[in-house]
Design a protein that fits this description.
Order of helices and strands: HHHH
Helix content: over 70%
Structural class: mainly alpha
Shape: flat
Strand content: under 5%
Largest sheet: none
Number of strands: 0
Radius of gyration: 14 Å
Length: 104
């Protein structure tokens, strides 16, 4: 169950970063509340995951999946570049997270 919590926490991180971008575009209390709830939920699920997963592994996977997801959201929703070099390093982040899962 801890790994499911960690994935949910990563989605909180991804959605929180997306909310930052929305908040920067138009500063409203609703968008600010969504940003706070997103990151807050991510931290709650990260803490649940860390009951069973070592801190270093959980944090590295959480930030790695969050970073990879944020890059994909940026490409898909905000028109950011999807060059081959960017995709190569995105694959490195994902492979590193998978490696930590496999060897932890």
């Amino acid at each position: 169950m801890a790994w499911i919590y960690l994935v949910i926490a990563s989605f909180g991180e991804i959605f929180g970063v997306m909310c930052i971008n929305w908040f920067i575009q138009k500063k409203t209390l609703g968008r600010l509340a969504l940003l706070i709830v997103s990151f807050g939920g991510g931290f709650v699920f990260l803490s649940l995951a860390m009951r069973s997963i070592p801190m270093g592994t959980a944090y590295a996977i959480w930030t790695g999946l969050g970073a990879a997801g944020a890059v994909l959201i940026g490409i898909l929703l905000f028109g950011e570049s999807a060059g081959w070099k960017r995709m190569l390093f995105l694959a490195c982040i994902i492979a590193s997270a998978a490696g930590l899962k496999l060897f932890s």
